[in-house]
Amino acid sequence: MPEPLPQPHLVRTDDGHTLEGELRVATAERAGMVLCHPHPQYGGTMRSLVISALFGALPAVGVTCLRFNFRGVEGSEGTYDEGRGERHDVRAAIRALDAHLGPATPLVLTGWSFGADVALSSPDPRLAGWLAIAPPLRFLADEAAVGADERPKLVVLAQHDEFRPPGEVEAVATDWRATEVQVVAGASHFFVGRTEAVVEAARGFADRFVGPNR
Questions:
Q1: What is the per-residue pLDDT for 93?
Q2: To which H or E segment does residue 198 belong?
Q3: How many CA atoms lie within 13 A of 36 on its CB side?
Q4: What is d(CA 40, CA 141) in angstroms, rounded to the nearest whole number?
Q5: 65, 59 in Cβ contact below 8 A?
Q6: pTM above 0.70, yes or no
Q7: CATH for 7-208, among 3.40.50.300, 3.40.50.1820, 3.40.50.2300, 3.30.70.330?
Q8: 7-24: per-residue pLDDT in tens?
Q9: How many CA atoms lie within 13 A of 38 on its CB side?
């Protein structure tokens, strides 16, 4: 069976910006995932390495994915807002994917680096859980609220992260409720050569909500 092709998908925020995105619909949809990219001021876009790996691999195992560019990135309107306005962007992306999914289909919010912090700062009631990949924990809106949320959280860290030592992040995250931490051996913050480990972690996390793909 051919892989599902990405579809252009515009996202409209509640503060009036239109964001460019892409939707890749799973052929046997079991779950949905919104993908949040790394820091816009350091080259992060919805086509960054880890986001592209997830967007390319997960629909084949039943996870419909929506990736988008934060405000001010490439064709998205607006300007960078240090993680504040970007929370509007995430909420809009959640609404956009929710409109596609059935009401009983679990929706996971995933982010890498800056995108992970913004994702964790977005406690939307529609979410089943969060996958945070190499979060620096420098852009969280309310760390106490993140830790107190009872919904599942998987934090995937790079053994040789250049921006925040994984031990520091793990020391914080292990005190959060319903949270598991995985460290990818040999990986840098950019996961070059280690993206398959991140894809496997994402696939396993989705399986928690729906059971393994057959």
A1: 98
A2: helix 195-210
A3: 33
A4: 18
A5: yes
A6: yes
A7: 3.40.50.1820
A8: 999 999 999 999 999 999
A9: 19
